[in-house]
Amino acid sequence: QVQLVESGGGVVETGGSLRLACAVSGDYFSRYGMGWFRQGPGKEREFVGTIDWNGINTNYAASVKDRFTISRDNAKNMVYLQMNSLKPEDTAVYYCAAAKWRWGISVSGYNYWGQGTQVTGSS
Known about the structure:
The protein is mainly beta. Helix content is 0%, strand content 50%.
């Protein structure tokens, strides 16, 4: 199966920045819409941002809009999440996900998932 590996998590102070990266294995990365989701302690996994297969369209959760930016590099099979102005409430495990031939905000719409990377916003 397709493998996704997230990296770039860590502990940052309020107002700080992190850039997460997701490396995707396989030969058909350009077929996949990509998404970032997060899951905080005791919470369900929630949508963060998504980007379509050619990188033209993006969408974000209201809680992160204007702070986070998703991007992709199809030549390198990589997707990124730039996170600025981090808050304690951003603390969660962040997951990269791939959707075959589509993209969107729903967890159920994605076929492949990484194992996540921890992001902690300290106050």
